[in-house]
Amino acid sequence: MQTVRESALSQPTADGFSVENDPELKAYIYQNLVDLQPFLAPESQVAVLVGQDEDEDGKFEHSLTLVATLGDYRLEAEGQNEDIYEAFLMAKRKMLHQLEDWYVSSIDNSERDNEIQAVLEGRHMIH
């Protein structure tokens, strides 16, 4: 099971907001990260980084970045929205897309490697 780095969750934004201070949001994030689990190894980690920017109208926009480590690989996905829940969902959708692409390419490579090995061992004939 992947772990979420607590230190990343507790980083306060410019107005003092942090996920750690909002137990409902923290629970929501943990519940939704389960969807990433099929693509992650047990030693994988997911960090949730929260930032905040003020636009020209004086409104705050949340920036939420998911960072997943997969062995030597690191994937990042960011979502930005006035609603932090929506920013998280945007980042999660982007992360799922990246993880699916990474998974498909790793499967394709392993299948290709298995076919090459079979040919080298004489289990298949090349026509």
Short descriptors:
four-stranded mixed sheet; Double Stranded RNA Binding Domain; single chain; alpha+beta; 4 strands; 127 residues
Secondary structure elements and their pairing?
Elements: E1 3-4, H1 6-9, H2 23-33, E2 45-54, E3 60-70, E4 73-81, H3 84-120
Parallel strand pairs: 1-2
Antiparallel strand pairs: 2-3, 3-4
In short:
This protein has 127 residues and is an alpha+beta fold. The protein has helices at 6-9, 23-33, 84-120, and strands at residues 3-4, 45-54, 60-70, 73-81. It is built from 3 helices and 4 strands.
Give an overview of the whole structure.
The chain is 41% helix and 25% strand. The mean pLDDT is 80. It has a four-stranded mixed β-sheet. A hairpin with a 2-residue loop joins strand 3 (60-70) and strand 4. The N and C termini lie far apart (44 Å). The radius of gyration is 19 Å and the shape is elongated. The protein has 127 residues and is α+β, with helices and mostly antiparallel strands. The chain has one domain: Ribosome hibernation promotion factor-like (Double Stranded RNA Binding Domain). The protein has helices at residues 6-9, 23-33, 84-120; strands at residues 3-4, 45-54, 60-70, 73-81. The chain contains three helices and four strands; from the N terminus they run E-H-H-E-E-E-H.
Q: What is the terminal-to-terminal distance?
A: 44 Å
Let me know the CATH homologous superfamily. Ribosome hibernation promotion factor-like
Helical percentage: 40-55%
Mean pLDDT: 80
